[in-house]
Amino acid sequence: MRICTLAALAAMGLAVMCGENAKGDVRVEKAAYFGQPNCYRLSNGAVEVVVTTDIGPRVIRYGFTGKPNVFAELPEDAVVTEWGTWKPYGGHRFWHAPEVKPRSYYPDNEPIAFELQDGGIRLSQPVEAKTGMQKEMIVTLDASGSGVTVRHRLTNKGVWPVEAAAWALTIVAGGGTTIIPQERFISHDDYVLPARPMVLWHYTDLTDPRWTIGKKYLRLRTEASLNTAQKVGVANKQGWMAYLNGKTLFVKRFAYVADGKYPDDGCNCETFTKGTFMEVETVGPLMTLRPGDTIEHTERWYLFDGVEAGATEATLDAAISPLIAKAPALEAVNPVP
């Protein structure tokens, strides 16, 4: 595993400062965080991102400088399978879809390789011995503002073709609401074909009070007293989803490939909750990876503070629509290089 010191960072031309950095600079520094001694913090004076290298690949923190983590931190949780103990840890992780045990829960509890880059870091997990797959995340922080680019690269290092999709999952701090845009309303008099699929799981209960289904938004909130699972997936052609916790809005931007084959009956956007646990998920198209092939799925992240959402869908829409417009859409590209 490559270890880069601050001196090495300076040699690479990255901004390295001992004190507070001015906005417009990206500082990358080694830091202890989440009980992990070998994390790296990316900061630009406005926001900070913390990634782990003793486990992962994971982004364990994303937030405004000096303010709470938008992501959850779950050091004690675990899922035991015949392939070992998988820990959610919280934060942002990378799986390959479709979900199945034990493959999806392949443990990522060991140190990973990393390479510091201009304004970011490349995180590479060892090849999964049981699946032959290798996961990489390339995390880059904008020089100013809150924007973060996360590239998820999945490579088949095995000896036979595998059908899979890159799956980006973020566990956010409890207490908020996931927001998924509905497709544009068109009267039945003007258009009669369906807008998109909405997929339910066996445990999905749309009478559960955590759901709010509106004309413009599909919403799912956390509730500590309700420890039953809820999940929904959609074909999200709008290319964004968000999570509002208090007055902080976390926005994910991602591309929709119109002719792509997506897992879970056509879903590229999913959300899951149980108690205070909430996941905000995006998925790339299913592709057949021959040995040596790589697919890539990109997310862009943004944070907005001071969001006054009000109590109705109309007030929510008025509050977040201008902010979504400030988060540029991602263009759809072929996920295979």
Short characterization:
The protein is mainly beta and 337 residues long.
Silhouette: globular
Helix/strand order, N-terminal first: HEEEEEEEEEEEEEEEEEEEEHEEEEH
CATH architecture: Distorted Sandwich
Low-confidence stretches: 1-23
What kind of assembly state do the chains in view correspond to? Answer: single chain
Helicity level, as a percent range? Answer: under 10%
Instruction: Please give the domain count.
Output: 1
Q: Counting H and I runs of at least 4 residues, what is the number of helices?
A: 3
Structural class by secondary-structure content: mainly beta
Order of strands, widest sheet: 9-10-11-12-24-20-19-14-17-16
What would you say this structure looks like, in words?
The chain is mainly beta and about 325 residues long. It has one domain: Beta-galactosidase, Chain A, domain 5 (Distorted Sandwich), CATH 2.70.98.10. Helix content is about 5%, strand content about 45%. It contains three helices and 24 strands. The radius of gyration is 20 Å and the shape is globular. The two termini are about 25 Å apart.
